[in-house]
Amino acid sequence: MIEISGTTRIFPVIGWPVEQVKAPALFNAYFQRHGIDARVVPLKVPPESYTAAVRMLMSFPNVGGIFVSIPHKPMSVSAVEQPSNRAVLAGACNAIYKDAEGMLLGDLIDGEGFIRAFDRTCAGKPLNWPAARALVVGSGGVGCAIAYALAERGIGQVAIYDTRTEQASALQARLQQAFPSVEFVIAPPAAAGFDVVVNSTPLGMHADDPLPIDLRGVSPGCVVADCGMKIEMTRLLRQAQEMGCRIQKGKEMLIEQAPLYLELFGWPGVSSDAFRALEAL
């Protein structure tokens, strides 16, 4: 039984929708296993109420931080007092917390979590980063974070696709200026010719969703990642696996960034293995 009292630190997960989030299951299992008086609670908040909700919640002494889910990550940059440099550049935050002086801070750790998970996925066959090409489909909060992280890691090219062409082009321009040695292009959602393919759109949250990426002509050496977590094996991942590709499930990104959340929220030094051992997802 999960006990909640007046001393419990609360960490909301805010999304619209919020039914797909997995952070409560993962972090509450960790808190319970280690006897930590803290709980993660999902809150369904519409976009028009988001900024006010963040500032109200973070004014409460027993709220320790906020996990940000779709579609609120881009709005989080202006909802906090001081976003991190990578959050500003990518245009999104997924973690909100306070510093020792009470200033409201925001960071973007999706990308770092993705890269850590990717390194595990490719442990037996590392990527030749300077020669590699990646396709990131979706330029919302997760897509921004992953495109940034891939560039920071030193990949040769990042191709971006989004049905919102102006948003994708704006991200391309920001990242190209920040990472001049990496080529950023706008491309269709077709996997052929890429070494890394990432779905960071909501497509795949439902079993009857259309495929977000055309896998025809994909190389068997390609790594196909889906950031969605509502369905563990999405149609995209199943098809990619059938075609001989290595795949990366969405839960891997959450597990690998879990220690990063804890560090921001006041519990440094935790390994992702501690979360993986819980088998909570």
TrEMBL record:
Alphabetic keyword roster: Amino-acid biosynthesis, Aromatic amino acid biosynthesis, Oxidoreductase
The answer, when asked if NAD is one of the entry's keywords, is: no
InterPro entries, alphabetized: Aminoacid_DH-like_N_sf, NAD(P)-bd_dom_sf, Shikimate_DH-bd_N, Shikimate_DH_fam
Pfam families named among the record's database cross-references: Shikimate_dh_N
Look up the record and give one Gene Ontology term from the biological process aspect: aromatic amino acid family biosynthetic process
Q: In which pathway does it act?
A: Metabolic intermediate biosynthesis; chorismate biosynthesis; chorismate from D-erythrose 4-phosphate and phosphoenolpyruvate: step 4/7
Q: Which Gene3D superfamilies match?
A: Leucine Dehydrogenase, chain A, domain 1, NAD(P)-binding Rossmann-like Domain
**An annotated GO cellular component:** cytosol
- Where would one find coiled-coil regions in this protein? none
Q: Which GO terms describe its molecular function?
A: NADP binding; shikimate 3-dehydrogenase (NADP+) activity
- Locate the Shikimate dehydrogenase substrate binding N-terminal domain: which residues? 13-96
Q: Which CDD domains match?
A: NAD_bind_Shikimate_DH
- Cited PANTHER family: BIFUNCTIONAL 3-DEHYDROQUINATE DEHYDRATASE_SHIKIMATE DEHYDROGENASE, CHLOROPLASTIC (PTHR21089:SF1), SHIKIMATE DEHYDROGENASE (PTHR21089)
Q: What is this protein called?
A: Shikimate dehydrogenase
Source organism of this protein record: Rugamonas apoptosis
Lineage of the organism: Bacteria, Pseudomonadati, Pseudomonadota, Betaproteobacteria, Burkholderiales
